[in-house]
Amino acid sequence: ISWTSTDGWKDRRIEKYGPLQLDPATAVLHYAQEIFEGLKAYKHSDGSVWTFRPDRNAARFARSAHRLALPALSVDDFIGSLAALVRTDIAWVPDGEDSSLYLRPFMYASEAFLGVRPALEVEYLVIASPVGPYFSGGVRPVSIYVSEEYHRAGPPGGTGDAKFGGNYAASLLPQREAQEQGFDQVCFLDAATSTYLEELGGMNVFLVMDDGTLHTPELGSILEGITRASVLQLAADRGYQVVERRIPLAEVVSGLESGTVKEFFACGTAAVVTPVGRLAGATFDHEINGGEPGELTMAIRQELTDIQYGRAEDRHSWMRRLA
Ligand code: PMP
User: Fold this and answer.
1) Which residues does this entry mark as bearing N6-(pyridoxal phosphate)lysine (predicted)?
2) What is the DSSP-derived secondary structure letter of residue 41?
């Protein structure tokens, strides 16, 4: 769908996949005025195709658009575009346990103009790709390096709560350096004080404490994950007390030493709920739960995927049929 400041959104269309032609002065190439979303389409055993809480992705996309001075896209256009793309060929949505069609809606400043101001021409597109299980051969706990050197976005008022490519660009170097040291992922601390846990490059984080409470970093400068919101709900349904707060890294490290932190997991659309088996930083290195997936971590993971794949009752009306 194309937008101009004079005509608004128009020209809703489906095109064959192929390269875009961009003027070298296209604004997004210079000032990174763009946003995106990530969702999955799941095939259920009766052949119907569903997605998970797309109203939340639409709302987050609208917030990201506002922050990046991009035009608002209606919820109907957002969800309708996903359905329209999936319906072009539902054979595109793979069958099978833990397989899905990844959907990537995005919006970018397409105007060829080098002045620094919001673009007057914008494009919204959706592309898709079948994806298999994130972990081949079973879920494996990941290792995380906490970076005290780099930040991904900024303090509240920055772009951390927007799904904006610049945040991901800033996470590439820390991610590469962590991988070179043998870690799977980087965890970022708050940009204002480098004291509190924030999130990974593409996942939110949770702690399970020995008193039966679940803790996750509060919103403000992190991405408001849809998996995060769903985990908070599923844990509360099970009777766990859930706490959204500022979590000092020092408290996590001492909790791992003393045993008050029992499980640590990360969550997001791509990897669902992923156990963390090792947390390290410049001055500490701890194994978590003996390097094994935690019990509650795996129970929530199972429950969430059962809802997504239609194997369990959708008691919160999270699923939306696309085809
Ligand atoms: N944090 C960041 C930085 C992310 O990119 C993602 C993935 N969208 C998440 C958290 C998890 O969000 P969600 O559960 O909506 O996929």
Assistant:
1) 163
2) E
What would the pLDDT profile of 142-163 be if each residue is shown by its tens digit? 999 999 999 999 999 999 999 9
185-239 pLDDT, tens digit each = 999 999 999 999 999 999 999 999 999 999 999 999 999 999 999 999 999 999 9
Q: What is the per-residue pLDDT for 138?
A: 82
* Mean of per-residue pLDDT scores for the chain: 97
Q: How far is the CA of 311 from the centre of ligand 1 (A)?
A: 24
Name the token pair of 7: 């005509």
What is the topology classification, in CATH, of domain 142-308?
A: D-amino Acid Aminotransferase; Chain A, domain 2 (3.20.10)
Rounded distance from Cα 321 to ligand 1 centre (Å): 22
pLDDT at residue 288 in the model: 97
Q: Which residues pair with 279 in a beta bridge?
A: 144, 286
Note the Cα 192 to chain centre separation in Å. 22
Ligand 1 pocket: which residues have CB below 6 Å? 38, 199, 202-204, 223, 225-228, 268-269
Q: How is the chain split into domains, by residue range?
A: 2-131, 142-308
- Its CATH class, for the domain covering 2-131, is alpha beta
Please give the distance, rounded to the nearest whole angstrom, from the Cα atom of residue 61 to the centre of ligand 1. 12
Which atom of ligand 1 is the closest one to the Cα of 57?
Answer: 15
Q: What are phi and psi of 100, to 5 degrees?
A: -160, 175
Checking ipTM against 0.95, whether it exceeds it is yes
Contact 151, 195 (CB under 8 A): no
d(CA 99, CA 95): 6
β-pair partners for 179:
none
Amino acid at residue number 182: G
